Amino acid sequence: MTTTLDAANDRAQQLREQIERARDAYYQQDAQVLSDAEYDALVHELEALEQEHAELQTQDSPTQTVGGGVSALFDPVVHAERMLSLDNVFSIDELREWAAKTVASAGREGAWLCELKIDGLAIALRYEHGVLVTAATRGDGRVGEDVTENALRVAGIPRELSGSGHPAIVEVRGEVFIPSAAFERLNALQERLRARQLELSRERWAARPEASRGPFDEEAQLASALRRFPAFANPRNAASGGLRQQLDKKSGLEREAGDARVAALRLYVHGIGAWQDPPVASQSEVYGLLAEWGLPTSPYLRVVDEVDGVVDFVERYGRERHSVEHEIDGVVVKVDELALHDELGATSRAPRWAIAYKYPPEEVRTRLLDIVVSVGRTGRATPFAVMEPVRVAGSVVRQATLHNQDVVVAKGVLIGDTVVLRKAGDVIPEVLGPVAELRDGSERAFVMPTHCPNCGTELRPMKEGDVDLRCPNARSCPAQVRGRVEHVGSRGALDVEALGEVTAAALTQPEVPETPPLDTEAGLFELTIEQLIPIRVVVRDGETGEPKRDAKTDEIAHRTPFQRNPSAAERKQGLEGPQPSKQALTLLAELERAKTTDLWRQLVSLSIRHVGPVAARALADWFGSLEAIEAASREELAEVEGVGPIIADAVIDWLAVDWHREILQRWRAAGVRFATPDHPGPGAAAAAGGVLAGITVVATGSLEGYTREEAQEAIIRAGGKAASSVSKKTDFVAAGPGAGSKLGKAEALGLRILDAGEFHVLVTEGAGALALPEEGGDAEASDPEGADAAAADAAPTTSTTDEKDE
Ligand SMILES: NC(=O)c1ccc[n+]([C@@H]2O[C@H](COP(=O)([O-])OP(=O)(O)OC[C@H]3O[C@@H](n4cnc5c(N)ncnc54)[C@H](O)[C@@H]3O)[C@@H](O)[C@H]2O)c1
Ligand SMILES: [Zn+2]
User: Which positions bind Zn(2+) (predicted)?
Assistant: First the structure.
């Protein structure tokens, strides 16, 4: 028993020290040596230990105190009433438990006040007879730091309250924060200031006599600029540092930065301290009164009677977290009735009448192992961060793009840094910035390579002044060729399933044979089984791209994706040597099919700038063949709806390049059709008016055989108008499963409703080809399942697909 207690005591001691260190950095230096989640976990562990071993409880434990102290840089301010922290819950269950416990202690039910938990820092504003006398930080809860001077410059902190009849003393509490948009601007300003500082030091260096100066040390100067104008990791730290700075001691660029930081601060009030007999009975009414006095209250408040309402609020802002103008880290739930605040009281660190529900973190920390440059299909050289894998917002993240060298500099990250990584919901992961306080001097700066890492060609901007660098060796750069070959197979292009990233790499960068089967995409349709079978590739790690090693021999692992050994039965029949794998046969079969696929797909597969599926469809529909496109002038191309001058130029430019012409010539020779059969010639279909000329159709729900876009395109291609809402002007409504209010409206207006099969008839043959509506069709329409079954009968899916494949 004693040993466990000893062990627990040691651990508690360790935790307290870690927590105090983190608190000191957080509240005094506006820095974070731990992430919030790491910090919360330590506090929770300590709480659990103290609960298990009552002997370990001490009054000065961080579980019993309010974090924060008073820096010697500021005068102390004694709060008339203590400023407390909040207790936390991390799940809906814990939240309900807290609410039940609170109702039980209160002895009666009452309304709950829901608020957003603003991620900023607490401030106490003391007004005497309506005039601000001090503004103070929370400090340790009893004594805070005097920040009146800066507070008076914060928009929304009135020097004098409006209205009349103010109490002799009132303490107003609130959160000072920096809105997300202002935070972005602030970081952009820091970046500009860094650049100006660098410029200044260069000027100073240049002014020195040449004999006495060494070379300009760009790296050291950049590091110094980064120290003076760091990229802020998050709005909370930026806000805290902004309020707690000594502006009058700053000058020059630093003063400019400091002023901007104060100007970015905002306030929302969220409570009261000392106030004798407030003339209202609830916290929500308090806000009403404070608002009348000219103090800013949050617009995101809700009073609910039931815990279910609280849960709704929590869930809603869990989803809409990023539609709020400021960062939030949770929801604060308060008992609305003021009388109950007194009755329920507080612990040494938090009131019992309020709780903070904390959302799961969207920001985590990890180590930046390297910054690697990758060259894509279009030659763009993009630096990206390679990180120690870390779980954030529901997925494991290892890599994040850094866009270009300017972004790397702007983020101020060094290789080896601990970095803050953010992934908000479905959003792409982003490196926010370094945790500079954790540097140990071993970090190094990223230098953008001057030459393509894949082919050694000198990188350069496409146009003068472009930030992005590109590898100009479009024809032969292995990374670009591989990217283009992969693009040919992609869904929006030829949709060759057997031609993905790995196969594209095998065809363009195999280990064996030495000369790859493809040195550009020109040879794609000339591939033969004999060429494929011997291909051998190095097996690479899907994430790092590093070659994998055989577990037993430690040799680099290889694969021959296009061959297999003959089976015993085959061998008996005299077959010897490697046989083509299924992958090889599928690839060739799919390529064969692609030769006569839709013209627009073939156009997309050529990797012409700006020519994606939309532009390609417009071109294919209008011209009907690649030949006609080649014959068209710039003006003729630009005239086509959905094309325009930029795309026209891109097409003309692409066609002028000799190795592009070689692609066309070899693909054609191999049998690629590049034409829509029976197309009546450029512009003819549109000019003649399609089968749906003058007819308006609304497509809703999922129509078998069509995606939403395909259905709209089918209407437009047939010369009709694809409308998005149902009105009296609508001629037909095509409705499938999932059709919502539009179907109801169509029925109400008595419009002709079509199922998927009828829709197909409509867009291919016109309204005249539709069977007359059935008598008693009402019954069918009100029975959607029956209607679906009928639709399936009327339009066997095969007939639709057959036609599409042709
Ligand atoms: N990363 C670190 O190293 C580190 C160190 C210390 C603290 N922290 C962070 O700070 C937290 C603890 O700090 P704390 O004691 O200030 O508690 P807290 O931030 O969890 O909650 C209390 C504070 O919430 C603020 N608040 C925001 N909106 C509010 C609203 N609508 N109503 C009432 N209050 C509102 C108030 O300023 C109040 O003081 C930790 O959970 C952690 O997230 C992190
Ligand atoms: Zn290259």
Answer: 452, 455, 471, 477
The rounded distance, in Å, linking the Cα atoms of 506 and 682 is 39
Residues contacting 369, CB < 8 A, separation 6+: 386, 387, 388, 415, 416
Q: Is 402 exposed, middle or buried (CB count within 10 Å of its CB: 0-12, 13-18, 19+)?
A: buried
CB 154 within 8 A of CB 262: yes
d(CA 388, CA 417): 11
Residues of the chain within CATH 3.40.50.10190 domain(s) are 691-805
CATH of 78-178+265-358, picked from 3.40.47.10, 3.40.50.850, 3.30.470.30, 3.40.50.10860, is 3.30.470.30
709 Cβ contact partners less than 8 Å away, ≥ 6 residues apart: none
Which of 140-154, 374-388, 529-543 bottoms out in mean pLDDT, i.e. has the lowest? Answer: 529-543
The mean pLDDT value of the chain amounts to 89
Read off the amino acid at residue 702: S
Please provide the CATH number assigned to the domain covering 691-805.
Answer: 3.40.50.10190
Assign domain 2-64 to its CATH superfamily: Helix hairpin bin (1.10.287.610)
Q: Where in the chain is the domain with CATH 1.10.287.610?
A: 2-64
- Ligand found nearest the CA of 474: 2
pLDDT in tens, 403-461: 999 899 989 999 999 999 998 766 789 999 999 889 999 999 999 999 999 999 999 99
Residue 783's pLDDT band, with cuts at 50, 70 and 90, is: very low
263-267, 487-491, 799-803: the lowest-pLDDT one: 799-803
| Residue 767, Ramachandran bin (φ over 0: left; ψ between -120 and 50: alpha; else beta) | alpha
- Lowest average pLDDT, out of 162-171, 357-366, 583-592, goes to 357-366
The stretch 21-40 carries a mean pLDDT of 89
Query: What's the 457 CA to ligand 2 centre distance in angstroms?
Result: 6
Cβ(239)–Cβ(176) below 8 Å? yes
Half-sphere exposure of 104 toward its Cβ, with a 13 Å CA cutoff? 6
Gap from CA of 228 to ligand 1 centroid (Å): 27
**How high is the pLDDT of residue 684?**
65
Indicate the annotated binding residues for Zn(2+). Answer: 452, 455, 471, 477
Domain with CATH 3.30.470.30 in the chain: 78-178+265-358
CATH architecture for segment(s) 363-461: Beta Barrel (2.40)
Q: Where does CATH 1.10.150.20 sit in the chain? A: 595-684
H or E stretch at 189: helix 180-207
The pLDDT value recorded for residue 541 is 77
Q: Among the atoms of ligand 1, which is closest to the Cα of residue 116?
A: 31
d(CA 221, CA 202): 9
For residue 356 and ligand 1, the question of a CB distance below 6 A is answered with yes
Does domain 595-684 sit in CATH 1.10.150.20?
Answer: yes
